[in-house]
Design goal:
homodimer; about 350 residues; seven-stranded mixed β-sheet; two-stranded antiparallel ribbon; 11 strands; globular
Chain lengths: ~350, ~350
């Protein structure tokens, strides 16, 4: 696919203009800024601008749809997105969960029936900048087997968290399966084997061959939980339930074999640090620990001991200085098209 | 150490009588019942009655101490235990977090400066029986290295969660390091090697020798995070902060090299399922998924695919039917001594 270099300033402006057709200008600007930040953390490995455009398209396609608040308690809200892209409502969600967290110390937002949330750090990073601890989990599809098992019953169940420090927030965004699904798909497409400890065969035994790891229904993969053992399984199972039955979404074999976006759910938890302790003292302790971690002698298998997010922040600063990203031409044209619409 | 067979009924009665010297009768009975349940899940691998007695002793020794509520918001409370054993206040904590969770959908309890909480399922199981999802994390000591690192900076940071089903709750209680600390201590004492992927040496490289894995300060171990990779590290780090700086406790190198109980903190989160969705529908979905998990074909490395907690519930039922446990004579005598006191 051919692509084009576009300045960050132009991408942000185009995203904001497009989103403003569907949500308020303030929400649109917040969406655009957050999508750029998220992209800078991940590009060129993946380009979240593509997901941002998918979210915009869902609002264009489903003009008659509205999001529906199913629960609104002092510390909790649950939203049915009616298949709309949730990222356009990021500011609204952040404002509302921040207000509830400040009141109660902790607050929770659940979402179901949405156009999925592909990149979880989009949801957590902005809350850390507001001095909250944010944790977000999502399920999505079938691709992960239970420990000892032979067929996928869980999603790859990603987890993101973000924690304020005196400097950049600590930032995690990872599948809780041993491999993200897109890495499996790439291996299958490129016909290369994966390392030991990632995949199992139809009998539940280890394999490195992505073809042998295709599930019984041929739609999914047999990926192990993180670490390959029962501890990772315990984490994956917890997330499946928090993002399934708890938020009125689907989980386990309730989900269709074929990847079906609106069947997946998410749960965001925010903790107001200043509700429990002194914020400056908290940040100082966390920053001190980060420094202690980074100054450790490292083993031969790594080049340095890092704090989660270090690579992402480094990458973002470099890209911000360069000021341009490659966009697929199709994506760029869609954005230009929204701009040219009255 | 010599030991004696004692009936469950007698142990429960003795625990309850002892606790009633320090807290209300209702709290004492709740403490005794929960300690027995927790023990049935773990015995004979470990015997939590010993920790229950340690908690009782702390109340006897620190007669002038009182617990102090530092934060009490609608969804959150934080308690300084002034080195008292927190398990005697289990009913009070459960009542209070349940009330806050019902009001807000989610609630949080933090504790610091306590006589530690050795067995986390004591804190989560009772909440699942009240139809809440409960998650509890604790830090404790120094024993776990960051991914790629060479010196311990985290505790083994256990995590427990409990989730209601139509039958017995799902129940997890695990260190988020690759090995619990007591397993490392046993290997060191018994002079046996641990398997690959558990320990590192002073250069951050893998070792199976527990002697080589002793930390620089000679007080601790160099245990890897769960799974040995960066994903497990991300989980361990999150728990260190949630149970350290967030709850006004210590974390990382703020903790003494020598294991010092009152320096460790805990965080309990409870979610009111019925605040988000229909409770019966939730339980039915979870139970269906558990059934699907258990019916999977299993790999050669396990004898069956289980749901976390299956072994514990099986063990508890068997022991409940037998009706007796072995108690160390010293422990039994302490309990009898409290009984004989006016």
């Amino acid at each position: 696919m051919s692509s084009q270099k576009v300045s960050l300033i132009e991408i942000e402006k185009l995203l904001s203009k497009a989103a403003a057709k569907f949500v308020s200008l303030e929400e649109a600007q917040y969406f655009a800024k957050a999508q750029i930040e998220c992209t800078l953390f991940m590009y060129p490995d993946v380009n979240p601008i593509n997901s941002a455009v998918e979210d915009l398209e869902s609002w264009e396609k489903l003009k008659a749809s509205k999001i529906e608040i199913q629960v609104d308690k002092s510390g909790t809200f649950l939203v049915d997105f009616n298949r709309l892209g949730p990222s356009l409502k990021l500011k609204w969600v952040h404002d509302k969960i921040e207000e509830k967290a400040k009141l109660n110390g902790i607050a929770m937002f659940g979402l179901n029936n949405s156009n999925v949330t592909d990149w979880l750090k989009l949801w957590t990073y902005g809350l850390a900048k507001r001095n909250l601890i944010a944790m977000y989990v999502f399920n999505g599809g079938l691709g992960t087997v239970p420990y000892g098992g032979s067929e996928p019953i869980f999603g790859t169940n990603p987890l993101s968290y973000a924690i304020p420090t005196e400097d950049d927030p600590i930032l995690v965004d990872m599948a809780t399966s041993e491999s993200a699904f897109y890495k499996y798909s790439r291996a299958l497409k490129d016909k290369h084997r994966m390392r030991e400890g990632v995949l199992v065969d139809q009998n539940g035994n280890l394999t490195c061959d992505p073809v042998i790891a295709i599930s019984k229904d041929k739609e999914n993969a047999r990926i192990l939980p993180m670490g390959g053992g029962y501890k990772g399984y315990n984490i994956v199972l917890l997330i499946e339930i928090l993002t399934g039955a708890l938020v009125r979404s689907f989980m386990g074999l309730e989900k269709s074999a074929k990847y079906t976006k609106h069947e997946y759910g998410g749960l965001l938890i925010a903790i107001d640090i200043s509700g429990l302790t002194d914020l400056d003292k908290f940040k100082s302790s966390v920053s001190k620990m980060c420094k202690d971690i980074r100054s450790q002698k490292h083993g031969d298998h790594v080049t340095q001991v890092i704090v989660p997010g270090d690579h992402a922040h480094f990458r973002a600063k470099k890209l911000r200085a360069e000021g341009v990203l490659e966009l697929d031409l199709g994506i760029y044209e869609k954005l230009k098209n929204w701009e040219s619409q009255k």
